[in-house]
Amino acid sequence: MSEGEFVAKVGGAVGDLPQAQWDALGQEGNPFMRHAFLKAMEDSGSVGEGTGWAPLPIVIEGPGGGIAAALPAYLKQHSQGEYVFDHAWADAWHRAGGSYYPKIQIAAPFTPATGPRILTPHPELALPLLRAVESLCEQNGLSSAHATFIEPAQVPLFEQAGWLLREDIQFHWENRGYTDFDAFLGALSSAKRKNLRKERAKAQEGVDIRRLRGSAITPEHWDAFWEFYQDTGARKWGQPYLTREAFTLLGETMGEDVLLVMAFVDDEPVAGALNFIGAQALYGRYWGALVDKPFLHFELCYYQAIDAAIELGLSRVEAGAQGGHKLARGYEPVRTVSAHYIAHEGLRAAIADYLEQERAGMARDELWLGERTPFRKAGPAADKP
Questions:
Q1: Residue 87: which H helix or E strand, with range?
Q2: Which InterPro entries match (predicted)?
């Protein structure tokens, strides 16, 4: 495409854009960039009026009027639900007399999972899209724009545009060609292998665990999971991000991409974990329980996810943000990257200096964590399965 053939526009909602055109942009099999997921967030009221997340999709139209490129963007009035924490930046800018909010957030709402953030089959449109975001900030007096949990292949696009890069660490499980869970256990050290087996046995004792997908997930299952989700959300965030309607819509429009792991006692649901299925990865999202049973959290969220990923032939499990306890369960440290456009030169320079120091500490943390994975070490002293 040559300059003059396309025009950048700001939309009011992803749901207002043609689904077929949006989904043809190339989400690389990522469920959270699908039109259905983003529309469910809008239609359920999880984003929109009163939430501090105003949909602001930015698109480039081609010569025929169709969508050639897009950014899943939001106008944010706070920094909640992002999992990349910039509260200190906001506080510093407010103390300096500036207004940090509103800002632009390019993300899957409430979802710390890696994925494409620039949606287009035309790589040459990446820079014009990002320049459109910068112009939007400058023309409207917005402090900044942020793209979070960018898939590795797209990080250079933001770097080439001059956005500041920030790194963090998550814990992902990698499928190294395992045929089943026992094959995975065979890759662990003897002590860790025994520990995981004990945890699974205790978690499964007296509990019926079911993996549900598509039409097997009933409204009653969603009602139960909503109770679990509310309990966890109230303890972690003060109030849950998603509405009850969001789960119904996700089940109706993305049922085959949803894996709900439920625990039952005497046929009554007592705990559950919600996952989304991508082309390459299983993404763990939410968990909750009405009972306090040792290791049930690990079983539903981590071990069942590994089982399912092996069964589905997926290459990895992304188990969400934070959680050093995942390390002992076979989840390894992986760097995640966000990109940040800061409009004010002085604030940008201060944040750039901060990020340089933060990266050095992150590299040390990753090295330290990497040396403490539960896998058997190579060499003559390595123990046997």
A1: helix 87-95
A2: Acyl_CoA_acyltransferase, FemAB-like
Do 160 and 17 share a structural domain?
A: yes
Domain encompassing residue 304: 176-314
CA distance 25 to 321: 27
141 and 98 within one domain: yes
Report if residue 321 sits inside a domain.
Answer: no
Band of the pLDDT at 379, cuts 50, 70, 90?
A: very low
* Structure tokens that stand for 66 in this block: 């169709």
Q: Which residue bears the tokens 């763990």?
A: 284
**Quick one: pLDDT at residue 286?**
93
- Burial label, 196 (beta-carbon count in 10 A; 0-12, 13-18, 19+): buried
Residue 43 in domain: yes
256 is a domain residue: yes
Quick check: 236 and 264 in contact, CB under 8 A? no
pLDDT tens digits for 301-348?
Answer: 999 999 999 999 999 999 988 778 899 999 999 999 999 999 999 999
Q: Does position 227 have pLDDT exceeding 50, yes or no?
A: yes
Instruction: Give the number of other CB atoms < 10 A from CB of residue 148.
Output: 25
Domains: count for the chain: 2
The pLDDT assigned to 238 comes to 62
In a domain, 325, yes or no: no
Residue 234 confidence class, pLDDT cut points 50, 70, 90: low
Cα-Cα-Cα-Cα torsion 88, 150, 31, 113, nearest 10 degrees, comes to -50
Q: Are both 203 and 288 inside the same structural domain?
A: yes
Q: Which amino acid is at 207?
A: V
Amino acid type, 82 = E
For residues 200 and 300, membership in a common domain is answered with yes
